Amino acid sequence: LDGWWGVGKYAKLFEENLANALECKEAIMTNSGSSANLLAIATVMSKQFDGKLNKGDEVITTSATFPTTFNPIIQNGLKPVLLDIELGTYNIRASNLEKAVSPKTKAIVVQHAFGNPNEMDAIMDFAKDQNLFVIEDSCDALGSKYGNKMTGSFGLFGTFSFYPAHHITTGEGGAISSNNPEILTITRSLRDWGRACTCPVCKVILDPNFSLDLLRQAAR
Question: Given 46, 166, 180, 209, which residue is catalytic?
């Protein structure tokens, strides 16, 4: 009703509240959880991230998964290495990670199936030892905890979906969270078509109504 149709002050408020709820430093909204997964992979493959993940590298992930958790790996030219799931939790067994790792392995993408958290302490310890990135697909696990920590706050990125079938909805939509705001600057730019104007000094970021106010002044 106020004439603002894109990402504006309410989206920013939602991002802040979501980050607080997840106990992460920052979260950004996306148009879907699927896009959040794609942005997570694309961010780590960007030149701004020093090419830490390159085409042909291997990514360990789960064999029973959602298409848009799996597809971004292939879309970006990476090689998925599949681990079987454990019946009951439908997540991978952390003890099987050793069997899947190779000199080409660069990342782990885990999915918290049906809200069941993965063994994040063991997974993060393994990732640290092997110098691997961890991305958590938490689209099914908003509000779930492993120990005293929220799912989506362990790895480099957490991804979330607000599709109507999930815990809350924004009419569709999704989000990506991280404890590294500098990296999320790259993600925000990729989300916004490669715009460089993503820094906190940007007037539109500080005041989402900035452009709208200019238009209103011009109309007068």
Answer: 166
